[in-house]
Amino acid sequence: MTKKVICHDLDNKEFEIETDKLIFRPSVYGILIEKNRILLSKRWDGYDMPGGGVDIHETLEEALKREFFEETGIKVELVAPIHCETSFFNPSHSKNYKNQYWNCPLIYFLVKKVGGKISKDNFDDEEKDYADLPEWIDLDKIKQIKFYNSVDNDKVIKKALDLSGIKK
User: Fold this and answer.
1) Distance, CA of 102 to chain centre
2) Any idea of the CA torsion for 129, 72, 82, 130, to the nearest 10 degrees?
3) Closest CA to 142 of 76, 12, 49, 79
4) In whole angstroms, what is the distance from residue 10 CA to residue 26 CA?
């Protein structure tokens, strides 16, 4: 008997999937907080933390630096890990991954800016279809925005604030 897991899509609609259909795809995300604001990647009509998939030849740090720069134009250094959880995800929104199902360890890091400026010049072809210029969002407005991820964003951001010593 094949095992099954509960998978979700971009809209967090859940469905059951057989585990032999899963692809392992670790992902890393950065949380950059400055002046009581957080830098978020703009996606469709919502947001996500900057980050994405780890390529097989990359370390977690290399992947995060690359993904953060591609999505924001900002160069970062990792400060500390904040949060880790698993997401079983169907990236059906993407024409390149329509029939894939991913086992995604999601790893979040507190980061600090070391250079660059906000830009969308480094988007890959797929990101050009759904992403826009990243935005600084006031921490007081976090509960009012739509996130495209499956984590408890309030909890992850609170951990980042606690670790950085920033008072909200």
Assistant:
1) 14
2) -10
3) 49
4) 17
Instruction: Give residue 53's identity as a one-letter amino acid code.
Output: G
Encoding tokens for residue 103? 């086992």
Q: Which residues of 88-116 are buried (b: 16+ CB within 10 A; e: fewer)?
A: bbbbebeeebeeebbbbbbbbbbbebeee
Q: Encoding tokens for residue 164?
A: 């950085």
* Distance separating alpha carbons of residues 27 and 45, to the nearest angstrom: 22
Provide the 8-state DSSP code for 57. T
Tens of pLDDT along 111-155?
A: 999 999 999 999 988 888 889 999 999 999 999 999 999 899 999
Joined together, the tokens standing for residue 62 give: 């290399």
Q: State the Cα–Cα distance between residues 143 and 89, nearest whole angstrom.
A: 23
What span, in angstroms and rounded, lies between the C-alpha atoms of 149 and 13?
Answer: 12
Which tens digit of pLDDT belongs to each residue from 60-114? 999 999 999 999 999 999 999 999 999 999 987 777 777 889 999 999 999 999 9
Structure tokens at 27: 């992902």
CB 25 within 8 A of CB 102: yes
Tokens for 93? 């929104």
| Amino acid code (one letter) for 17 | I
| Six-digit token string for 54 | 């780890």
